Amino acid sequence: MATPLSDPSLSPLKTIAVVGLGTMGTGIAEVLARAGREVVGIDISEAQAAKAVATLETATARAVERGRLTEQERADVLARIRTSTDLRTAADADLVIEVAPESYEIKHQIFRELDGIVRPETILATGTNALSVTRLAADSARPERVLGLHFFNPAPAMKLVEVVSSVLTAPAAVTAVTNLALDLGKEPVAVGDRPGFVADGLLFGYLNQAAAMYEAKYASREDIDAAMRLGCGLPMGPLALLDLIGVDTARTVLEAMYAESHDRLHAPAPILKQLSEAGLTGRKSGRGFYTYEAPGSAAVVRDALTPLESSEKAAGREVRSVGVAGSGTMASGIAEVFAKAGYEVVLAARSEEKAQTAKARIGKSLSRSVDKGRMTAEAAAQTLDRITAAGSYEAFADVDLAVEAVAEDLEIKQQLFQTLDKVCKPGAVLATTTSSLPVVACARATSRPQDVIGMHFFNPAPAMKLVEVVRTVLTAEDVHATVREVCGRIKKHAVDCGDRAGFIVNALLFPYLNNAIKMVQEHYASLDDIDAAMKLGGGYPMGPFELLDVVGLDVSLAIEKVLHREFRDPGLAPAPLLEHLVAAGCLGRKTGRGFREYARR
Q1: What is the model's pLDDT at position 374?
Q2: Which pTM does this prediction carry?
């Protein structure tokens, strides 16, 4: 009969063995030692153990330089860490954290050996992010003491720790490691055993979709990465992140997820296999999606795929005046952006009153900028003077660029483009801000489809730096060049993409949001834990449910339906929970209730 785990409050985890002294294991050892734990670092390679010690010496010396440790504290930290190549040195540990390579055979061998070394009450934790904790536990002599303890890289900096229970795990073991994580200054999230857990479960599906998007030559690696950084506020683009994680590691995680879920979104994109088998595994090899200065370097260097400088591209048409069609928040925001950049702007709506209301909104926005010291009162007045409000699209007769920002309804947009075709002068560029509708359908409503292009601004337009420039198969080269030049003048970062549902950002963002909803729907994790996991483990500025409530559940559902209809992938079908909330009128912050409830203003 297995010895029951003692009360963790009576037996705190004082001595901890870390098996595997790669980057993650070394980082975990540092975190533990700085929190006052005695640490035994174990690796089969003497060279790797020596490298870990050198890394710890460097990291703690840097902490002293930055005033985060004193010299005495540094000496104490280093004294609490000893290294070994013999697994038997884990005999006195209260907890063993295994962070060996992501191979079931290797991990199983370590756990089997530990069964004959450690005390009966010692907790065994695996750092896996892709393999079955339950399987490792079931093959152990004492499955009730086995669990997952998933730190994030770099362990000293990242706050999230996923505590993974199997159906066999004793509650006392979970309590003990949860208390340890809190004592380390981390934020533990309790999750069940499935590949990827919460953070990687959501993250790797998104990374896989980005790799597939690049492989399909839909957009360049630079544009995919810039779109997700600037459009979603992410710290890194997905392809750069894959290079950092390791293309081979990502492929392993996705293979494990796909074996469990059979969801095509988790089936590794073929390019991940091609790069892995060619040894192009990312930063660690010096080349992956990008090329680096040297193996292990973060410095990207120019290669054959690096885009040409703008001076080497085609010239565009001259644009001095801009027409903006619409009276909502997006239309007024776009008009403000163009006016700030020095363009003469005609802001036209279906009535003079609506146009004047939109201009008044811009006036308030400019006043806020003055109050915050971002512009002078004189500059704000000049900006507003450049905007002419009009109650008819006839006012677009002389504009060089017309940008529509009306309702996201194809019939309404097509009618508007028919009108623009009649009133705008020959050679004027006609742009749609649609986020989900086919640009070519707007173009075909005119007699000059070659002059039509997508300019997808992000809300709020004055603040968001990204514009997705969407070419159809009919768009003229100089029209594309014109819009790229204009984006530069209005200080926006333009990314190129083709005319398909979701473009770059929404095509990658909304499947991720949908998968988060499915996790809640399946009672795998709570809203709060999922939001915390993505903010702390993925560096996202907002958790998925915070973002869904801000965007609007009805808007989110509409985009997910468009993606599902276009790509016909069962994994893109909107989660039933989202459909139910929309049907109930729970649309997010705007209605006071979505995934969460909000105080009504």
Answers
A1: 93
A2: 0.90
